[in-house]
Amino acid sequence: MARRIAPYGLGVHAVGNTVYLYYNSLTKKTHSFLVESSGNGFDFVPFRGTPVLAEPNQTTVDSRKCSDFRFSVMRGKYLATYLHKSHPFVAVSDDLVRWKVLGEIVLADEAGVTAEMADPCMIVPDIRYKGKAVMYYGHGSIRVAYSSDLVHWTPGETVLAPRPESYDAGDLSVGTIFPTDRGLAVVYYVRGDYNGTDSWALGTAVFDKNNPAKLVWRSTIAILENIEGLATKQVSPVGLVHRDNTLISYWDVQDDGIVAIAHPVTGSREDIAKGKKLKLVLEKITSNPILKPIASHLWESKAVFNPAAIYENGRIHLIYRAVGDNDVSVLGYASSVDGVNFDVRHPEPIYVPTKDFELSTIDNGGAFSSPYFSGGAYGGVEDPRVTRINDTYYMMYVAYNGRTHPRVAMTSIPVSDFHNGRWDRWKEPVLVSPPGVVDKNACVLPEKVNGKYVVFHRIFPNILVDYVDDLEAFDGKSRFLKGDYFIPPRYTNWDSRKLGIGAPPIKTDKGWLLIYQAVD
After folding, report:
1. Sign of torsion, CA 366 372 375 380?
2. DSSP code of 190?
3. Do 488 and 464 meet the contact criterion of CB atoms below 8 Å apart?
4. 218-229 pLDDT, tens digit each
5. Cβ distance 354 to 426 under 8 Å?
6. pLDDT of residue 95
7. Matching InterPro entries, A to Z (predicted)?
8. With helix as H, strand as E and coil as C, how does 352-400 read?
9. What pLDDT, on the 0 to 100 scale, is given for residue 184?
């Protein structure tokens, strides 16, 4: 999941659960950079003081000529490695604000022969090997080096090289390092080519804590391939942090500033190493279809499909989309004990278009065509998703009048009225997505997260996520969903073109299970 947060990033650092974002302002003409902090890695506020990066002679380093900051901790001190005019430097700080440059990093072998270095590098936090600090560095391949003073380093062997015919066949550079119970986890960037443009991926490797040059495991599966949803823009990495079993990557994106993407870290190392994935074997029942159109019901004579499902009082309740002789979508109701054999089916629609934004005025006998027609219908109420919150069912659906863009609308009904068939108790619907854009596949979680309602919806090609204070605040005029976060397609995978949420997510002991639809 991603969110746009700030411009022109230099690097990120996590101390406990607090994330610090260092960046240059695009508007302020200053040699100093800025820092903001966040408790969740996405919502940032200014941090105390103005950071200063100073040479030993107190000269301030021009941060506009710096890049590729990597932060770590060593013996209670904060360390930063960075490139300044393409030369690597190391700095130290007690408070994350005042930074003192220790010097330019020098690579020299045991014979004293120096080597040129202009590569991103990172010092391993609080790890020493044979009494020396350890650093991973390089661009193309990643190597290891050792130092007694953090400035002069002795290069070691190459520990990670590109792998042909793999997601990490491009140029590798170190992103972040953090300890795990199995060793040192190194998350690395992969810069490659995708259809003639730069692309980025993230890979993971684990090294032995007692021998940082010894590779223990390397993933065959990328954490991220390309910057999905942003393929048409210039993208460059800002940094990575690991907190609360989540890896957050930060990217500078053309015109958008900094984008943060969360990558949950789940599953065992052995499962990932073996390339194990969630595997579900589904078998269609032989009695399909479970519902068919009814020719004598003019409102559902042509098609029944795309239902919402509720399990309540020992029965499965379906609110399904129906299309009849007038080619307008309405909603019907059926229920079942087992979800297969539906012994209750209401003879009339339980929800029909009532507002201009969903009342189709298209003459189905004419030649009018629209790219938004779907399911054989020329408009109406489409594709419902229902969530119970306390004693109310909230239903979000696609409202389409055949003329303007399909949008998300919301209504609700008391639980008792729903189960007693009082269909006239549906609340007056209101549009919750903004005008001028196609928005579909919407639902709300059944409980709040961090005190807010969570709404999922879809604007091509992403699943969007909004945190909402009050579901009743939507007025259909000025208060709409904003799409603060997004879950993008993966442009080199089976879900490369567009995504859309399926049913409302289900809460499990491992988090919220989201099943989504996708197009390649």
Report:
1. negative
2. E
3. no
4. 988 888 876 655
5. no
6. 94
7. Glyco_hydro_beta-prop_sf (IPR023296), Mannoside_phosphorylase (IPR007184)
8. CCCCCCCCCCCCCCCCCCCCCCECCECCEEEEEEEEEECCEEEEEEEEE
9. 95
Which one, of 74, 45, 64, 66, lies nearest residue 149 by Cα?
A: 74
Annotate 411-453 with DSSP letters as a single string: EEEEHHHHHTT-GGGPPPPEE-S-TTS--EEEEE-SS-BTTBE
Are β-strands 506-508 and 511-513 bridged in parallel, bridged antiparallel, or unpaired?
antiparallel
Mention the CATH class of domain 298-519: mainly beta
Contact indicator for 20, 248 with CB cutoff of 8 Å: no
Q: Same topology for domains 2-273 and 298-519, yes or no?
A: yes
pLDDT of residue 214: 97
300 DSSP 8-state letter: G
| DSSP class per residue in 184-208 | EEEEEEEEEEETTEEEEEEEEEEEE
Q: Quote the CA–CA distance of 262 and 265 in Å, as a whole number.
A: 9
- Please state the domain extents for the chain: 2-273, 298-519
| Class at the top of the CATH hierarchy for domain 2-273 | mainly beta
User: Quick one: pLDDT at residue 30?
Assistant: 60
The residues of the chain scoring below 50 in pLDDT are 4-6, 267-277, 366-367
Residue 447 and residue 470: Cα distance in Å, rounded?
Answer: 12
User: At which residue do the structure tokens 């070691």 appear?
Assistant: 156
Question: Exposed, middle or buried: residue 339 (CB in 10 Å: 0-12, 13-18, 19+)?
Answer: middle
Residues listed for the chain: 520
User: Please, which residues have CB within 8 angstroms of residue 405's CB and are 6 or more apart in sequence?
Assistant: 372, 435, 436, 437, 438, 439
Q: Are 58 and 48 in contact (CB under 8 A)?
A: no
